[in-house]
Amino acid sequence: MYSSLQGKTVIVTGGSKGIGKGIARVFARHGANVAVVARNLGAAQACAVELNCENAKVVAFQGDVQNRDSMKAVVKEVHETFGGIDVLCANAGIFPSASLETMTNEDWDTVMNTNAKGTFHAVQACIPYLKQAEYGRIVITSSITGPVTGYPGWSHYAASKAAQLGFMRTAALELAGEQITVNAVLPGNVLTEGLEGLGDDYLEEMASAIPMKKLGTVEDIGYAALFLATKEAGFITGQSIIVDGGQILPEN
Description:
By secondary structure, the protein is α/β, with parallel strands linked by helices. It is built from 8 helices and 7 strands, in the order βαβαβαβαβαβαααβ. It has a single domain (3-242), classed as Rossmann fold (3-Layer(aba) Sandwich).
């Protein structure tokens, strides 16, 4: 168990469900206080009630990563609630599907504004508070889609996830002098609420593409983020960890 996170404050954007909820759960289990940030306050509150435990305090906050002022306001509120901010898990993201031939400017802009610009807004809002921390950590949830692989219907999503890694590397350089690290986790096929309703046949087909023959869990991503947020990982910055059960390894 990483004791260096006990009592630290972690913001998880898009934290009310899916991978974000898994990240929040793992940090809470390891004694960190967690701010679950989501556009839907009711969903964030339900998540906070579920994840609260003896070792940590989990609190819900409403914020929209697409809106710079919203993120500045919610980050300030988190700071006032917990007395500091140590870790940002910039996880909020969307993945609608649209072919190149049918995609509209609005489709493109919505995905980029949430996934890429939303990461920028969250990071920028947290920087003043991370500078005050004993050590600051930023962990971005990217994807294998875009930085490593492609998938039909996700050209806008892939572009946004690749953009996150370009942003990460330069942010890591700018913040290194402040002892703030910036890294990313790249999930492969992970079982979330959105996939559970697609049926066993679909899930089995997805799992068959993975050498380990199983889908990842949201906690698998959470533990990778947890490691990058620890004091022990303090000499790692500007890097990405692929968590995919070997999905990208086969040649065909």
